[in-house]
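User: Just a sanity check before I run the rest of the batch. Below are the structure tokens for the first item. I only need the designed sequence back.
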């Protein structure tokens, strides 16, 4: 132990004496480890860590898919759930369905809207979670008439009741309906959405379970595998169930086959993470490149320092120090350096996470779980120790190969470094340049892709002068269609009188909002081709002035007007994509469409079939994201005066560039109904901006890491050439004494740097050609071999590298031949 303490003290003394090396190495390691800590924290929380439930890898998501109808990822229906309870009992020990909702609660006399989850009583049993207080739902509470129960989240329990056990058994009003509080979730319970605040039991009626509700997909279905059961067994039983239902309901079979109907099952974790996995893995690969570049820099510094310490090491060996003693000392120095950089990197990485959290990090799947936890700390320390050992072994190998005689003989003159050491150092810098090239190309492509995404026309004006807010009048106070329409009309009428407001409209489905609705609609007289699928476009109920409020262009016909009321001609507006689907090359104005009314035959028309006459065609509107991952099938819009929707999002357009008076709008609503909260308040620009989080965060981080890689690569080239000049001082002096001019010496050193740069470009280009296929799934609108990106990256990296060559080359031209030869 005393010997170890002596080694440690000696290492600290040596590192303190060589301050330039120590500070440079510490800063390089700290920056590189901080980058790795930040990104690994994200990847670990989102992708690598299991979900916070016991044996979460056994939980699967099951959903319906209709790719031919434009619904690649649908949910599940109530009849599907009951079918699967029976037919999948041998592979699932528990199944559940759930649906997200928002509810109004009265908190201390102030109504507010909160996020809730309606779940079957089996939900918590499936997750294998015990209640924090009280109990969870029982089966008898999942039937109509007995479902007025509620379970609070731990945070809501603290907010409303201060953590008092007396909350159990009390009454909480949800949308003006009394519910009994029966339990509280555990403190650390988290299910997908960190804003989830309470749970209600689902109670399905016989009508909801009926066969005419098949393929009415409104619920998410999950199941927990039995021990020993596999996902392949689930898929086999689902395929068998599809065939059984095809035989039970032959009227649906051709329609479903044409729609490509299938039941998909994937791990619940994969479903939660979604398409962000590839972006994060790519980002992680980029930060590992930064780490490797930094390690190469420190390795080069260590080799240069080892050469400078050759006499010291040779002297210690000459006076009797053993190789083991020397090895232990050099390794101790590296461990001290590495651990210092590691601790600084962990602190800097935690700070980096806090900074990027403000850029929408929590909007990522499982974003609330991201942090520097025990796994991140242990992984980082393991990485630090590994790097420290590597950085200690390099100079150790160099030191143990020292020829004592040559070291002491060369002490009287300035010689050149060994060819092996120079070759190794040049090779390391070539690797640096190659890695920097790879990282910068990846960052450049992500940036170019993001710019392409921003150029996509969403179909409306994504402007900060367009504010949106949602209202959901409770059914107990607004029970009928008439009361709903009257409330909406009163809000619209008063809002249109606000100063500075140009248009006010409302819709049941706002683009880039949290809710959606789609259903089958058919054009009268349209003859389907053999094998053609029915389509299920987005459907929305909108008021007059809605399209004007969002700036959705009118292509043909007219918008809805005050004459489109109940009892008048039922009208519909379609977007251009749906019009081209049903009436290619023709005007759809005056044509009719109908909603299927016979569940036994979608194409059948009878006295109950609702028809709608097309009065207008509007531009295509992006509904969920700027980038369509599945070919969209279009959208259609119904007049609010002829239809109904309880929840409506109001769109308010300012008459000029001033902000929308949302507080004035709030006062109007409060004057009409003081107990109705306004929620989901965003400008349209904010809605679009929020949808870009999954592309923006990796892009910004990759640009930052690319800048770090560029700096480190330039420093690496500078270090190698500066060391080369120092080692070749005598040679350069001889060249100048024999008549070589300063430009010749400048060119000699500059060419060395240019060769390193060229080799790095070649190696980086070869590696990029091999790895480019991994980029195709995460970039949009640009090719992995986009010439513009490659040219700019090459120019930036080349310029930085050549600038790094200038100082050493200029220093070489200032060498005094006389001093060089006599020193």
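Assistant: Here's the designed sequence for the first item:
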């Amino acid at each position: 132990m005393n010997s170890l303490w002596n080694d440690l003290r000696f290492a600290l003394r040596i590192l303190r004496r060589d301050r330039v090396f120590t500070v440079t190495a510490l800063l390089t390691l700290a920056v590189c480890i901080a980058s790795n800590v930040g990104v690994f924290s994200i990847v670990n929380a989102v992708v690598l860590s299991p979900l916070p439930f016991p044996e979460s890898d056994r939980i699967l998501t099951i959903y319906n898919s209709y790719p031919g109808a434009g619904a690649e990822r649908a949910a599940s229906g109530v009849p599907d759930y009951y079918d699967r309870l029976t037919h999948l009992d041998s592979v699932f020990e528990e199944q559940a369905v759930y649906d997200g909702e928002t509810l109004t609660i009265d908190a201390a006399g102030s109504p507010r809207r909160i996020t809730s989850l309606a779940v079957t009583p089996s939900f918590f049993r499936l997750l294998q979670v015990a209640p924090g207080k009280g109990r969870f739902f029982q089966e008898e509470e999942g039937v109509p008439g007995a479902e007025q129960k509620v379970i609070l989240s731990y945070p809501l329990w603290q907010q409303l009741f201060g953590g008092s056990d007396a909350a159990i058994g009390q009454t909480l009003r949800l949308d003006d309906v009394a519910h009994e509080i029966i339990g509280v979730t555990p403190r650390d319970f988290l299910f997908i959405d960190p804003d989830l605040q309470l749970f209600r039991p689902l109670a399905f009626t016989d009508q909801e379970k009926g066969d005419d509700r098949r393929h009415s997909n409104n619920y998410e279905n999950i199941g927990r595998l039995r021990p020993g059961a596999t996902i392949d067994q689930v898929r086999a039983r689902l395929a068998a169930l599809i065939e059984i239902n095809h035989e039970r309901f032959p009227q649906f079979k051709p329609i479903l086959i044409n729609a490509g109907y299938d039941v998909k099952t994937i791990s619940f974790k994969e479903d939660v993470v979604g398409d962000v996995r590839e972006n994060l893995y790519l980002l992680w690969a980029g930060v590992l490149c930064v780490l490797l570049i930094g390690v190469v820099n420190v390795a080069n510094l260590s080799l240069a320092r080892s050469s400078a310490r050759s006499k010291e090491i040779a002297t210690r060996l000459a006076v009797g120090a053993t190789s083991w003693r020397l090895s232990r000392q050099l390794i101790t120095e590296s461990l001290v350096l590495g651990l210092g950089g590691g601790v600084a990197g962990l602190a800097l990485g935690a700070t980096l996470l806090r900074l990027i959290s403000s850029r929408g990090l929590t909007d990522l799947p499982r974003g609330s779980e991201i942090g520097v936890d025990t796994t991140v700390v242990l992984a980082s320390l393991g990485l630090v120790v590994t790097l420290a050992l590597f950085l200690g072994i390099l100079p150790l190998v160099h030191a143990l190969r020292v020829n004592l005689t040559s070291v002491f003989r060369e002490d009287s003159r300035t010689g050149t470094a060994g060819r092996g050491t120079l070759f190794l150092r040049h090779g390391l810098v070539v690797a640096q340049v190659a890695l920097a090239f790879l990282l910068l190309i990846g960052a450049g492509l992500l940036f170019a892709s993001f710019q392409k995404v921003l150029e996509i026309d969403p179909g409306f004006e994504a402007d900060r002068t367009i504010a949106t807010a949602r209202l959901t009048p409770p059914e107990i106070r607004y029970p009928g269609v008439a009361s709903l329409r009257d409330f909406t009309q009163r809000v619209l009428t008063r809002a249109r009188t606000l100063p500075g407001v140009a248009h006010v409209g409302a819709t049941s489905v706002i683009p880039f909002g949290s809710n959606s609705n789609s259903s089958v609609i058919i054009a009268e007289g349209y003859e389907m081709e053999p094998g053609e699928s029915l389509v299920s476009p987005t459907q929305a109920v909108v008021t007059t002035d809605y399209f004007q409020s969002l700036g959705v262009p009118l292509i043909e016909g007219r918008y809805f007007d005050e004459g489109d009321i109940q009892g008048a001609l039922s009208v519909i507006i379609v977007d251009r994509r749906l019009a081209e689907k049903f009436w290619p090359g023709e005007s759809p104005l005056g044509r009719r469409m109908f909603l299927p009314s016979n569940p036994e035959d979608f194409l059948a028309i009878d006295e109950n079939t609702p028809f709608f006459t097309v009065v207008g065609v509007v531009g295509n509107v992006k509904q969920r994201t700027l980038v369509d991952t599945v070919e969209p099938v279009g959208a259609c819009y119904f007049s609010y005066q002829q239809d109904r929707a309880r929840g409506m999002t109001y769109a308010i357009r300012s008459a000029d560039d001033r902000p929308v008076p949302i507080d004035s709008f709030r006062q109007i609503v409060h004057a009409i109904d003081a107990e109705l909260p306004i929620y989901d308040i965003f400008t349209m620009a904010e809605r679009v901006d929020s949808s870009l989080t999954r592309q923006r965060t990796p892009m910004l981080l990759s640009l930052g890491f690319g800048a770090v890689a560029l700096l480190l690569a330039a420093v690496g080239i500078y270090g190698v050439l500066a060391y080369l000049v120092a080692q070749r001082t005598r040679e350069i002096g001889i060249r100048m004494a024999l008549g070589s001019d300063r430009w010749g010496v400048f060119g000699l050193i500059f060419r060395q740097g240019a060769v390193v740069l060229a080799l790095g470009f070649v190696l980086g280009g070869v590696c990029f050609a091999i790895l480019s296929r991994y980029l195709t799934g995460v970039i949009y609108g640009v090719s992995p071999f986009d010439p513009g990106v490659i040219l700019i990256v090459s120019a930036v990296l080349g310029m930085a590298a050549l600038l790094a060559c200038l100082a050493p080359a200029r220093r070489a031209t200032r060498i005094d031949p006389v001093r060089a030869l006599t020193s």
